[in-house]
Every structure is written in structure tokens, then in C-alpha cells.
């Protein structure tokens, strides 16, 4: 097969069947692999070159199918699917596990005082804002003013939610208090994601036919995409924020943590990380990355345009973002 790799391998699509949950899970276990953030710029550019050359019918001598798919997934992990731009390192999905395990672990360790809640929720929402912007759908750029407004409003709303919930739980059991960070993160995702992707809700995201031919922009498609992402993100956070509190509540009554209280944060971070290694790809896989909706669910003008150009078309497709 060396040097004779066929040119009909569809690397525009994932390697696994995206109509099944298992296929999507395999895809996202590869895309969110934390080892991808250790790749050098040279390795990323080499993967990009292989992918671009293959799409143009150029196959380097000795390239195997497995090497082609590896290059495709390295490319997908670092470059935006709509714009082709290299994504900010901490905004890539491969950075989700190491970044979130550290931030979430600290949020759940230092949740008792208002300054600590304020600081870690601000750090978390700032990180979320970077991720939400980096993994937005579509290719329309946000202006600096739009980006600044979205960041300030999203972060302020999320932090205020966390402080409000923290105040409500002052007189409840310590175990319930441990769940405040999760409730705050869930509520904040509902605020942060739509605000950081508000341009999509205003002007729409690109919709295509099944062959990738662009048909126009749809705000209705953006609503569906953002809703799916919010659900995925909340469920993604759930295991790492719901399971460790029970374990930590038990461990803190034991002699070990009473003797070494400084071990609380590393243990919490480790527990969250273990949960996130599985929760991140599995929750990304809940909905297809190339999402779809019925033509009848689109805006009236876009429906009319599609009926003129492609009267037989029943469904349109779009990148939902992550």
C-alpha cells in the first residue's frame, strides 16, 4: 500500500460512523485526547500539510491510511473546522481535561469564602469564554467590541449566579454546600455560551446540503446548535462535580486528611480529572458534530431561497460547535 494510498478516503468526515453514539464517542476520544496539546507547531503544520495535500490529490510516498487518519485528527484537534485558523491552545478540546480538572478541582476545594468563590468562578468563566469563542460555529468574526461585551456580560452573570447560590447555602449541610460550584457552573453555562456566541444568534450560522454546498445562514440553526452545546457542557461537568463531593466528604473525616489537609486539593483535582477523561468525549458525542434540521424549521426567507434552488431538499446541515 506504500505510496499507493487511494484518493477516495473521505477525510472531511470522521473515521467512525457519526450516526451512532459509539462512533461519535470514538471520534471525540481521539479529538479530546489531552496528549494532543503536547504536539509541537512543526507536528501540527506537518499534519495540516498532509491533510491539505491529500484533499488536492497529492499523496506523499509511503503514507499509510493510519498515518493519514492520524494527521487528520491532529489537524482537527488544532484547527477550526470552518475558518481553518489554528485555535488558541487552551481553547482546544484537547485542553479541556487538564484545564477543567485544575479549575474545577480548585473551585470545589476553595468554595467556603466569598473571595475564593469570586476568584475561581472568574477564572472558570474566563476559561469558558475562551473555549466558547474558540469552538464557535461559523466563519463570521466577532469584533473586539462584541467580544469584550460578551466576555464581561457572560463572566459577570456567571459570577453573580455563583455568589447568589453560595449565599443561599450558608445554613445547609456541608455536603450540600459542596454542590454549589456545580449548580453555579450549570447556570453559568446557560449564560456564558449564548453570550459568547451571540453573533451566531443575530446573523446565523452557515447551513449546507449533505454535500457541503453552502445554502445560506440561519439563526434557527444557531439556536439548536447552542442549545445542544449547553446541554453537553452541563452534563460534561456533572460527573466531575457530583461524584467527588461524596468521596471528599468521607475522606475529610478520616485521619489521613486531618493529618495532611494540604492533600485535599490534589486529591480533588485528581478525582475530577479521572471523571473528565471519560465525561468530556462521551458528552461531546451526545449530538452529532455535523448537526441537521428540517428545512421547514428554517427562517421563511431561507426556506423560500432553498425551495427555488433545491426544491427536493428536506434537511440542512451545520457545524454545531463544541
TrEMBL record:
It catalyses: L-serine(in) = L-serine(out); L-alanine(in) = L-alanine(out); L-cysteine(in) = L-cysteine(out). PANTHER family: SIDEROFLEXIN (PTHR11153), SIDEROFLEXIN-1 (PTHR11153:SF8). It is found in: Mitochondrion membrane. This is Sidoreflexin. Keywords: Amino-acid transport, Membrane, Mitochondrion, One-carbon metabolism, Transmembrane, Transmembrane helix, Transport. The chain crosses the membrane at residues 175-195, 230-247, 267-287. Amino acid transporter importing serine, an essential substrate of the mitochondrial branch of the one-carbon pathway, into mitochondria. Mitochondrial serine is then converted to glycine and formate, which exits to the cytosol where it is used to generate the charged folates that serve as one-carbon donors. May also transport other amino acids including alanine and cysteine. Pfam families: SFXNs (PF03820). The gene is LOC101388327. It is a multi-pass membrane protein. InterPro entries: Mtc. Belongs to the sideroflexin family.
Amino acid at each position: 500500500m506504500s505510496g499507493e494510498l487511494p484518493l477516495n478516503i473521505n477525510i472531511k468526515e470522521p473515521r467512525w460512523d457519526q450516526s451512532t453514539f459509539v462512533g461519535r464517542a470514538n471520534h471525540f476520544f481521539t479529538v479530546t485526547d489531552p496528549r494532543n496539546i503536547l504536539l509541537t507547531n512543526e507536528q501540527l503544520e506537518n499534519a495540516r500539510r498532509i491533510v491539505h495535500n491529500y484533499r488536492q490529490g497529492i499523496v506523499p510516498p509511503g503514507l499509510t491510511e493510519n498515518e493519514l487518519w492520524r494527521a487528520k485528527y491532529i489537524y482537527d484537534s488544532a484547527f477550526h473546522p470552518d475558518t481553518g485558523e489554528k485555535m488558541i491552545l487552551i481553547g482546544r478540546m484537547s485542553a479541556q481535561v487538564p484545564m477543567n480538572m485544575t479549575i474545577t478541582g480548585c473551585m470545589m476545594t476553595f468554595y467556603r469564602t466569598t473571595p475564593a468563590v469570586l476568584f475561581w468562578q472568574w477564572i472558570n468563566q474566563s476559561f469558558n469564554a475562551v473555549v466558547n469563542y474558540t469552538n464557535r460555529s461559523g466563519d463570521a468574526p466577532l469584533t473586539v467590541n462584541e467580544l469584550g461585551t460578551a466576555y464581561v456580560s457572560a463572566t459577570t452573570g456567571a459570577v453573580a449566579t455563583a455568589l447568589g447560590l453560595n449565599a443561599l447555602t450558608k445554613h445547609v449541610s456541608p455536603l450540600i454546600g459542596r454542590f454549589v460550584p456545580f449548580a453555579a457552573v450549570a447556570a453559568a453555562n446557560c449564560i456564558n455560551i449564548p453570550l459568547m456566541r451571540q453573533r451566531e444568534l443575530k446573523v446565523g450560522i452557515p447551513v449546507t446540503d449533505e454535500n457541503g454546498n453552502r445554502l445560506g445562514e440561519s439563526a434557527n440553526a444557531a439556536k439548536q446548535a447552542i442549545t445542544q452545546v449547553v446541554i453537553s457542557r452541563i452534563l460534561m461537568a456533572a460527573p466531575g462535580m457530583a461524584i467527588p463531593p461524596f468521596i471528599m466528604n468521607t475522606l475529610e473525616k478520616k485521619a489521613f486528611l486531618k493529618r495532611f489537609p494540604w492533600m485535599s486539593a490534589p486529591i480533588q483535582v485528581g478525582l475530577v480529572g479521572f471523571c473528565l477523561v471519560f465525561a468530556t468525549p462521551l458528552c461531546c458525542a451526545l449530538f452529532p458534530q455535523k448537526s441537521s434540521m428540517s428545512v421547514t424549521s428554517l427562517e421563511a426567507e431561507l426556506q423560500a431561497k432553498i425551495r427555488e434552488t433545491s426544491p427536493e431538499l428536506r434537511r440542512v446541515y451545520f457545524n454545531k460547535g463544541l
